[in-house]
Specification:
The complex is a heterodimer.
Chain A (H helix, E strand, L loop, with lengths): L10 H10 L6 E4 L18 E4 L3 E5 L20 E8 L2 H9 L5 E4 L3 E3 L4 E2 L15 H7 L2 E5 L11 E2 L14 E3 L3 E6 L2 E7 L5 H6 L5 E3 L2
Parallel strand pairs in A: 1-2, 1-5, 5-8, 6-9, 8-10, 12-13
Antiparallel strand pairs in A: 2-3, 3-4, 6-7, 10-11, 11-12
Helix pairs in contact in A: 2-3
Chain B lengths: L8 H5 L7 E4 L9 H10 L4 E4 L10 H6 L3 E6 L8 H8 L4 E4 L2 H13 L3 E4 L13 E4 L2 E7 L3 E11 L5 E2 L8 H6 L1 E11 L19 E4 L4 H7 L1
Parallel strand pairs in B: 1-2, 1-8, 2-3, 3-4, 8-10, 10-11
Antiparallel strand pairs in B: 5-7, 6-7, 8-9
Classes of the chains: A alpha/beta, B alpha/beta.
């Protein structure tokens, strides 16, 4: 980045930025990895109910070391807690919640998102060695909103927001919003619309790091 | 008098055939019926098709069954995870067949098998590599993929409480695939942490009614062992 007048967000700042936009009362599934961090930035007095694919609603943060419970894990197989009011259910019910459109929001990471809302996040090539899909395809197809939390470009500076995905797809036309270390972008019939940028960043500079046409929100 | 509790592991495993399709409960190591898997290793059935969310970790339990070359094919959603060294090695050497199924589709295929639904349409996976070659249709503007029921010859299930009729409860997030798989096999075998008197599980608390269960073997949970496998 040759423009020195702006500061890209750190991973924690990206999670914090997204958490600001999640209203009280939403039922939310956070994907493995970076999306999991979002829960840390929803203040406890704002009641957002977190779902985990392995059969939990009302998931809370990691337990204190002296209260660890090896039986209570999330989809990333990390130990978690259950908040008062939480519940357990089996795998088919858990995915009925997902596929049935009962979740307000799912947050996933991605390799690529296309301007038509296609998402690629599970395999790096058709010949991938033992690809693991988990619940990503069900979550993409089922949640009311699919937000992607990811860096704006790859480590080599290649755009991850593109006209058409080159990696194997997870779902077609599913993504509604993208939060990156540089901007918040809506995905709609018009393609990518910029809702917010880090201070000091220009649309031209953002466009230079994006593989498809950007518009500014009216 | 009905008594589904068997005396020992050998009795629990009796009759499992070579080439059987075996459903294995659990999500990662939580709620995984490790004692039953060890029993299956001892019993000797081979050329198995295993259905499980993951492909085992470390070199114990499911991973050991794989390492002993007893599994011809594994059907799972997330084969590659922390510690799945045995699976990855076998897969690399073309010594195991893999069918990757989206996690919710896997659960629903099992549920369908238990509920007498031979096939169903789901939006999950439409337009992806995992839908290749499958029939599609459009309902209410939504593109869907036809998926078929996935029935087991045997289900291996881990439960918290069981009674002699086979009524079951599950512990915490150890429920996961267990109740679904219990419905989807010809022979459902349960390892229960505690076997209790008939009538002592409140009817409202029964998660799997005993009609789905064929055999119960008492295997107290070893907390330490659970932790090690995690």
């Amino acid at each position: 980045m040759n423009d020195v007048s702006f500061q890209a967000l750190s991973r924690r700042q990206m999670a914090e930025r997204m958490a600001r936009d999640i209203p009280e009362g939403w039922y939310v599934n956070l994907g493995i990895g970076l999306p999991t961090l979002v829960a840390d930035f929803v203040p406890p007095e704002r009641e957002v109910i977190f779902h985990s694919e392995n059969g939990l609603l009302g998931m809370g943060p990691a337990p204190a070391p002296d209260q660890a419970d090896t039986w209570l894990i999330n989809a990333g197989k990390q130990q978690v807690t259950l908040r008062p009011g939480g519940s357990f259910f089996h795998q088919a019910d858990s995915f009925a919640i997902i596929r049935g459109g009962h979740l307000d929001l799912c947050v996933l990471g991605a390799f690529e998102v296309a301007e038509n809302g296609d998402i690629a996040n599970w395999a790096t090539s058709a010949a991938d060695n033992a690809p693991a899909v988990g619940g990503a395809m069900d979550l993409s197809a089922g949640a009311k909103q699919l937000w992607v939390l990811m860096e704006h470009t790859t480590k080599d500076g290649q755009p991850k927001l593109v006209e058409r995905c080159s990696y194997p797809l997870t779902a077609l036309g599913a993504v509604t919003r993208i939060y990156t270390n540089l901007a918040v972008i809506e995905v709609g019939p018009q393609g990518f619309t910029v809702l917010d940028m880090v201070p000091g960043l220009t649309l031209e500079a953002l466009q230079a790091q994006t593989g498809a046409k950007l518009r500014l929100a009216a | 008098m009905i008594n589904k509790q068997v005396r020992d592991m050998a009795e629990a495993m009796a009759g499992i055939q070579d080439s059987a399709t075996v459903l294995v409960g659990g999500f990662g190591s939580v709620g995984q019926p490790d004692a039953l898997i060890d029993g299956l290793i001892e019993q000797g059935a081979k050329d198995l098709t295993v259905v499980a969310n993951n492909a085992g970790a470390g070199r114990v339990g499911l991973a050991r069954l794989l390492e002993l070359r007893r599994v011809r094919k594994i059907i799972c959603s997330y084969p590659r995870s922390a510690g799945s060294v045995v699976f990855e090695e076998l897969f690399r050497n073309h010594e195991i067949e893999l069918e990757v199924v989206p996690q919710g589709t896997l659960a629903e295929r099992l549920r369908a098998a238990g509920a007498g639904i031979p096939a169903f349409f789901t939006p999950t996976g439409y337009g992806t590599l995992l839908a290749k070659g499958k029939q599609t249709a459009e309902f209410e503007g939504k593109h869907c993929v036809l998926e078929t029921a996935l029935k087991g010859d045997v289900a291996l299930v881990q439960a918290e409480l069981a009674d002699r009729w086979g009524n079951l409860t599950f512990r915490s997030s150890g429920r996961n695939f267990n109740p679904v798989m219990a419905t989807a096999a010809t022979m459902t075998i349960v390892q229960a942490n505690k076997v209790v008197e008939l009538g002592s599980i409140p009817p409202e608390a029964v998660i799997t009614p005993g009609i789905y269960v064929n055999r119960v073997v008492h295997v107290p949970v070893d907390g330490a062992a659970q932790e090690k496998a995690a």
